Amino acid sequence: MSLDELREQIDSMDGEIARLLRDRAAAARKIAAEKAASGLPVRDPAREEAVIADRVRRAEGGYPAHSVMNIFRAIVAETVALQEGELRRRMCAPACPGPSGKRDELARIVENRELRPGFNRMRLAAPGADRLFRPGQFFQIAPRPREGSPFLRRPFAPSELTPDGLAFVYAVVGGGTELMTRLRPGDDAGLLFPLGRGYTLPAPGSRAVLVGGGCGGPSLGPLAAALAAASVETVAVLGARTAEKLVGDDCLGAHVGRLLSCTDDGSAGMAGTAADALLSLLDAGPADAIYACGPTPMLRAVAKIAAERNVFCEVSLEERMACGFGACVGCAVEMLTRDGAAKYGRVCRDGPVFDAKTLAWRA
Ligand SMILES: Cc1cc2nc3c(=O)[nH]c(=O)nc-3n(C[C@H](O)[C@H](O)[C@H](O)COP(=O)(O)OP(=O)(O)OC[C@H]3O[C@@H](n4cnc5c(N)ncnc54)[C@H](O)[C@@H]3O)c2cc1C
Ligand code: FES
Predict the structure, then answer these.
(1) What domains are defined for the chain?
(2) Which of 123, 216, 314, 317 has a CA 20 to 30 Å removed from the CA of 154?
C-alpha cells in the first residue's frame, strides 16, 4: 500500500483514530523531508515512505484486512522510530518545558546500588515530589541528560516517596537500565513527573490485598503507605520465579498487616504463584479491593480471580513507552467499553492503573 492509498483509506475513516493516523503519516513525511533537507545520513524521503508502507503491509499480514489498529500501530511504531532522534534531543534537554502541570528537571542521584544480582535501587533528590505523586503514578528518567542520553526516557514507578525525593527499584533488563547502573551518587538524571493515573483508594475500614510480581512489588510501596494512612486493613503478596528475584519486602513490610512471599520453585516463602497465594488469602477472608502490579500473565490471573470473586480490582500495566504523556500513542492497550465493544487506551495517560474489568485480557 502506498502512502497515498493509505491517506485515502485514512480519509475515509472517522474519529480520533483517523485524526491520529493522519497526523502520524503527515509527521513521518515531514520528518523524512527534514532529514533529507538537513543532509542527515538517513533514508531518503522515498525510502522513508517505502519503509512505512512495508510496515503497514507486515502489520496487516496475518491480521484481518483493513484492521485499523494494526495500521495505526505500524505507523506509530515507524513514526516513533523516525522521531527518536528529535524526541531524544527535546526530551533530554534540561530546559524542555515538558507537558503542562508536570515537573521536568534534573535530579541529583543520592544512591544507586545493587540490591541483589539484576536489581538496583536508585534514590533521587526531588524536593516536594511526595506531594505531587498519587500512588500508582510513574515518572520517566533520562539517564544522561547533559551528554544527551542515547535512549528515550524510561518509565518507572517510585517504591518510596519522601519530602526529599523518591526511590525506585529497577530490574536490569536492557541497554537503558544497564546504563542506569553506571550512574553514581552526585550524577544528575532527567526526571519527568508525575505521569499517568494512579490507584483508587477504598473507604476507610475496608480490606485490601496487594499483589506484586517481580519488580512490580516494590512499586506498591506508596500505595501500601497510603492505605495504612487511610486506615485500610491491608495484606500483601509478593511473588517471583525464584528467591533471587524476590524484591519489595522492605518497601511493603512496614505498611501492611501481613506479607506473604511466594516463589514458583519454592526456594523462598510459599511454593506457587502470586495468584495461588492470592486465592489462599481470599479463602481465609474476604477483601473489598485487590491491587496488582507485575508481569502481564500474573495480572491476567489476578483479574480473573477478582472477577470470579466479584472483588474490585485495579492493575498497573507495563508497556514500552516513548513520550510517557499521551502524545505518541506508542503504548496503546486494548480495552472494553461497558457494552463489551473494543476500544483503545494509552497506558501512559489512561493508566498505567486500570480497573481490571475495563481491559481486554487476551492470552
Ligand atoms: C508505568 C511503568 C512503570 C514501571 N516501573 C518499573 C519499576 O518500578 N521497576 C522496573 O524494574 N521496571 C519498571 N518498568 C519497566 C521498565 O520501564 C523497563 O524495564 C525499562 O524501560 C527497560 O529499559 P531497557 O532500556 O533496560 O530495556 P530495553 O532494552 O528497552 O528492553 C529490554 C527488554 O525489556 C522489555 N521492556 C522494555 N520496556 C518495557 C516496559 N515498559 N514494560 C515491559 N517490558 C519492557 C523489552 O521488551 C525487552 O524484552 C515500568 C514500566 C512502566 C510502563
Ligand atoms: S508513551 Fe506516548 S502516548 Fe503513551
Answers:
(1) 3-92 (no CATH), 103-195 (2.40.30.10), 207-316 (3.40.50.80)
(2) 314
Q: Measure the CA–CA gap between 264 and 44, rounded to whole angstroms.
A: 51
175 lines ligand 1 (CB under 6 A): yes
**264 grid coordinates:** 514458583
Cβ of 331 less than 6 Å from ligand 2: yes
CA of residue 155 to ligand 1 center, whole Å:
7
Judge if the beta carbon of residue 323 lies within 6 A of ligand 2.
yes
Given this model, what pLDDT does residue 105 score? 87
pTM: 0.77
What is the chain's mean pLDDT, rounded?
80
Would you state the cell numbers that stand for residue 136, as one nine-digit string?
Answer: 500508582
Residue pointed to by grid coordinates 513520550: 323
What residue's CA is closest to ligand 1, atom 5? Answer: 156
Q: Hey, which bits of the chain come out as E strands?
A: 103-116, 119-125, 138-142, 154-156, 160-162, 165-171, 188-195, 207-213, 233-240, 258-263, 270-271, 289-293, 312-316, 332-336, 342-346, 353-355
Q: Which residues of the chain have pLDDT under 50?
A: 13-18, 40-42, 59-68, 78, 81-98
